[in-house]
Design a protein that fits this description.
By secondary structure, the protein is of the alpha+beta class. It is 39% helix and 19% strand. The protein folds into three domains: 225 residues, HUPs (Rossmann fold); 86 residues, Up-down Bundle (Chorismate Mutase Domain, subunit A), CATH 1.20.59; 116 residues, Phenylalanyl-trna Synthetase, Chain B, domain 3 (Phenylalanyl-tRNA Synthetase, Chain B, domain 3, 3-Layer(bba) Sandwich), CATH 3.50.40. It contains 14 helices and 22 strands. The strands form five sheets. Strands 3-2-1-4-6-5 form a six-stranded mixed beta sheet, sandwiched between helices. A five-stranded antiparallel beta sheet has the order 7-8-11-10-9. A hairpin with a 5-residue loop joins β9 and β10. α1 crosses α2, α2 crosses α7 and α5 packs across α8.
């Protein structure tokens, strides 16, 4: 046992020295055995005065006990500890909210050049991989907890929770058990206490270590794909805030590589762009598919969080719905709206075509010098003769795809709407029998 303990001690020290890169470190203490081992190893392996510790008290059940444990182990390691108080804001997913509050508090308290070390283990990694696998994550999610991100380092990811607990016990380190670790309201707790033991019994070898190893391999693949994706031009205005609409920014991505690169590469460029306009939210899989379709076909799409993807020449623009200026309706001329081209023509008699879809038919009386194309707006209604119907309801009733509704145009003058293009013409604007007809035709591209 002594030999094994010495070998583990050597491995732990090597990982901590590698993670520190010669810089001062701050160890995030949680009160448990994992972080107790980390702070003790760091205090012994790194030069004197280069190690500090921090504990974040969230004011939850057990927080005060954990704080006492963290302070005791820091004292045992001869390391200065800072205690921060960071109440957890209200909302769903207590674990995620507490983690965000903790990381924010630590980064705010230690804004300098120090590296920030956490004691995440191979067991934490296995739990994370299993949870993300159940959600259908790709290689980015299945690569699990990163060993390095920004100033954060996680040197214990190759060691299991069990071997670190045994090591802490052998050294007589003070450690407490967080009550949240046994609260089965949390998914991670159910994975830890129900799923992992079952997997461990059912599979030979050390499945926890295997999951962690798979995460490492996927992280390498994911990093390579990210490097390929970084070559796709993503153009952010010099002042995205100035270019923002209602607080949401605008970004442009080169269309050609989005249309031709494998989706594993293109999707990363798209998610990077989505994060830039949506405050680090990467969008959904459907958003990614929609942006690629815009690059390939030029068709505009509505994305999550109220943004759209629109074709703009060699770029796909992601951002709020463009506030296109009203466009005059001129017979014999075409106009472009929402990435679609429309032709305006006048016929001497009503054609034998069905209204709706590609075609909109209007009486010449309905097209005046004040008539223009504009985007429909909440509150717009169309007169159907004896009653009026909200334009939003018409778009749904006529099965206009959800991604096309935000860019659906209407024909209006200052007083009323004559037609929802490609959907319905107002009763008063319909051409009468034997009357000339204004035809608006959406151009079909191959």
């Amino acid at each position: 046992m002594a030999g094994q303990s010495h070998e583990l001690s050597t491995q732990l020290a090597a990982r901590v020295i590698e993670a520190s890169s010669g810089r001062p470190v701050v160890v995030a203490l949680g009160g448990g055995a994992d972080s107790a081992v980390l702070v003790l190893v760091a205090s012994e392996a790194l030069p004197a005065g280069r190690v500090r510790a921090v504990f974040v008290n969230h004011g939850l059940d057990g927080s005060d006990v954990l704080e006492k444990s963290a302070s005791a182990v820091a004292d045992q390691a001869g390391v200065e500890v800072t205690v921060l108080h960071a109440p957890v804001p209200d909302g769903p997913n207590l674990e995620a909210r507490a983690r965000a509050a903790r990381y924010h508090a630590i980064e705010e308290a230690f804004p300098g050049d120090d590296l920030l070390l956490t004691a995440h283990t191979a067991t934490d990694q296995a739990e994370t991989v299993l949870m993300r696998l159940a959600r259908g994550s790709g290689s980015g999610g299945l690569s699990g907890i990163p060993a390095s991100r920004g100033r954060w380092r996680r040197p214990l990811l190759t060691f299991t929770r069990e071997e670190l607990a045994a090591y802490a016990s052998a050294l007589g380190l003070v450690a407490a058990d967080d009550p949240a670790n046994h609260d089965e309201r949390f998914v991670r707790t159910r994975v830890r206490e129900r799923l992992l033991p079952t997997i461990d019994d059912a599979l030979p070898g050390e499945p926890v270590v295997g999951f962690a190893r798979s995460a490492d391999l996927l992280a390498e693949d994911d990093g390579y794909l990210d490097r390929l994706a970084s070559r796709i031009p993503v153009i952010l205005p010099a002042s995205n805030r100035a270019a923002a609409v209602d607080g949401v920014g605008i970004v442009r991505i080169a269309s050609a590589p989005l249309a031709t690169e494998p989706s594993a590469v293109a999707s990363r460029a798209i998610r990077r762009a989505m994060r830039s306009v949506l405050g680090d939210y990467p969008g959904t899989s459907s958003d990614v598919e929609a942006v690629i379709d815009t690059a390939q076909t030029g068709v505009a799409h509505s994305l999550s969080s109220g943004v759209v993807s629109v074709n703009e020449g060699p770029f796909v623009r992601i951002g709020p719905l463009p506030a296109e200026p009203p466009t005059p309706v001129t017979v014999g001329r075409s106009f472009t709206w929402g990435g679609q081209r429309y032709l305006v023509d006048r016929l001497d008699r009503r054609p034998t075509i069905l209204e709706g879809g590609r075609f909109t038919l209007l009486s010449p009386r309905a097209v005046t010098p004040d008539s223009h194309i504009r985007g429909w707006q909440p509150g717009d209604r169309l007169d159907l003769g004896g009653r009026s119907t909200p334009v939003a309801e018409l778009l749904r009733a006529h099965l206009v795809a959800g991604h096309l509704r935000p860019v659906s145009p209407v024909i209006a003058d200052d007083a009323k709407i004559a037609a929802v293009v490609g959907v319905r013409t107002a009763a008063w604007a319909k051409p009468e029998r034997e009357e000339p007809v204004i035809v608006i035709e959406r151009e079909v591209t191959s």
